[in-house]
Amino acid sequence: MSESPSELGYEQARDELVEVVRALEAGGTDLEESLRLWERGEELARICERWLEGARARLDAVLAEDAADD
């Protein structure tokens, strides 16, 4: 969990997010660690959302080009 957000690809962020959720669901951490995990999970979710928004925009652009060519 040490890579900076700008270095994470979608799959990396998603996989780390899954691990964060598992750790939170398993419990057994103190409040400070739980908060740290929660904050990291929020950050990872935002990274995933940005990747998905970018992919959606690229697909929309290709579809718009195809429609213009028809």
Automatic annotation (TrEMBL):
<dbReference type="InterPro" id="IPR037004">
    <property type="entry name" value="Exonuc_VII_ssu_sf"/>
</dbReference>
<keyword id="KW-0963">Cytoplasm</keyword>
<keyword id="KW-0378">Hydrolase</keyword>
<dbReference type="InterPro" id="IPR003761">
    <property type="entry name" value="Exonuc_VII_S"/>
</dbReference>
<comment type="similarity">
    <text>Belongs to the XseB family.</text>
</comment>
<keyword id="KW-0540">Nuclease</keyword>
<comment type="function">
    <text>Bidirectionally degrades single-stranded DNA into large acid-insoluble oligonucleotides, which are then degraded further into small acid-soluble oligonucleotides.</text>
</comment>
<dbReference type="GO" id="GO:0008855">
    <property type="term" value="F:exodeoxyribonuclease VII activity"/>
</dbReference>
<protein>
    <recommendedName>
        <fullName>Exodeoxyribonuclease 7 small subunit</fullName>
        <ecNumber>3.1.11.6</ecNumber>
    </recommendedName>
</protein>
<keyword id="KW-0269">Exonuclease</keyword>
<comment type="subunit">
    <text>Heterooligomer composed of large and small subunits.</text>
</comment>
<dbReference type="Pfam" id="PF02609">
    <property type="entry name" value="Exonuc_VII_S"/>
</dbReference>
